[in-house]
């Protein structure tokens, strides 16, 4: 079933665009890579000591979703938005049968998990895409407890309603809490202003009409029609003037008419009810396509306990910033009243919200209420330290791979090392190595960079993550131990940047 049952040949520096330093693929010898379904992958899976098997059925289909007022035609997992959470215990085996009733082929990617390579869901690399009307069985051991999620890894499908949480519970959970809520953030346009493919087509077409290498704002020669973030009649999907200090400038490319928490618009929010004094664990997931969210709970401070599923030394904050694909777990002890849980679309106009109610009689907060906490302390990567038991041991890198993040909004030529994604080009690593990835952002936009199959450590603090924001002009070094053989993607989790070409592959040498 795999197309990788053959030798891959590295191509030497094929392209260097705009003076970008090409350093990733500097060898030209031929290399043989571990196959996604090969013996080494099976051995790595056996070493996870697979526990009992849990069966799930995942029906991907076209359906209607009620966003709490607007009702849209979209693509969904099952009959709800987000899709039904998959919840297993650490060490259990997820056996999920994808039934594809979409009009197009698809795959499922299990975001953040160190899973067996052939279950990773990358079309043309770890599996063939599942055709319309087809089925595919994903089976993998959930090796680390934490907050994860799943979505298609095919075209722009992630920006429809195809996403759901995957929670891996720790049977020896060290945290004490009374309740647990999963809060999924999303930016929404599908079935309202167009489809994700319309958006990509517009961004690409617009690039064809502009010249030059991108202006200071990253929007190249485009006129700026208004000072507030908005779209225009001519380019209904393109976001103009989305600016954020936290994101180092340009906040996003895409205009969304709605922002959602758990599938609901702000005017019709989900309400979480509990008693005052109750301690809640909130699992935050950003499932957006092109929007970072700044999250706060009015009247409360949050204690951050996990980043991307992995524990941190607990630290208090008023708000958190989540790029696409990022997750945080927080603990909060609820006060008496009714409080807005707000996710501000960072740098864009609009917000998503839920309500937290511990008193029946308390007045409901205004729909557009923006709690002060949003503009107070916002803990970032530098204030987060990994819990002692998940800190990577000190070790020098055996190999450093430089990934220049390149491209401009004007040309919409997002790429890595100036080269558009090519599944035949694979950067070799070896089992057992400590690998450093050096993300050098040469562009004028931020990029949430995601590595499949591993949880890296930020070089500066050791914070364990699988998706990390790289600000414009900045370099972010991350380290990981090559302990999960296979072919793995590194890509920007902005779905439009990824589709434009900001993706590449790492491969374990056979
Ligand atoms: Cu990007």
Summed up:
Keywords: Copper, Metal-binding, Oxidoreductase. It holds the Pfam family Cu-oxidase_2. This protein has 510 residues and is mainly beta.
Task: Give an overview of the whole structure.
- The protein is mainly beta and 510 residues long.
- The chain has 3 domains: 47-172, Cupredoxins -  blue copper proteins (Immunoglobulin-like, Sandwich); 174-386, Cupredoxins -  blue copper proteins (Immunoglobulin-like, Sandwich); 392-508, Immunoglobulin-like (Sandwich).
- The protein contains 3 helices and 32 strands.
- The chain has helices spanning 39-47, 196-209, 495-500, and strands at residues 53-66, 71-77, 86-89, 93-101, 109-111, 135-141, 146-151, 164-169, 179-188, 243-244, 249-250, 258-261, 271-273, 279-286, 293-297, 302-307, 310-317, 320-322, 327-333, 338-345, 351-357, 399-406, 415-416, 426-429, 434-441, 447-451, 456-458, 464-465, 467-470, 475-481, 487-492, 503-508.
- A 6-stranded mixed β-sheet has the order 12-9-14-19-16-17, with no helix packed on it. The protein has a 6-stranded mixed β-sheet with strand order 23-22-25-30-27-28. It has a 5-stranded mixed β-sheet with strand order 13-21-20-15-18, with no helix packed on it.
- A hairpin with a 4-residue loop joins strand 1 (53-66) and strand 2.
- It starts with 38 loop residues before the first helix and ends with a strand.
- Residues 1-29 and 211-226 have low confidence and may be disordered.
- The structure holds copper (II) ion.
- Copper (II) ion is lined by residues 414, 447, 492, 494, 497, 502.
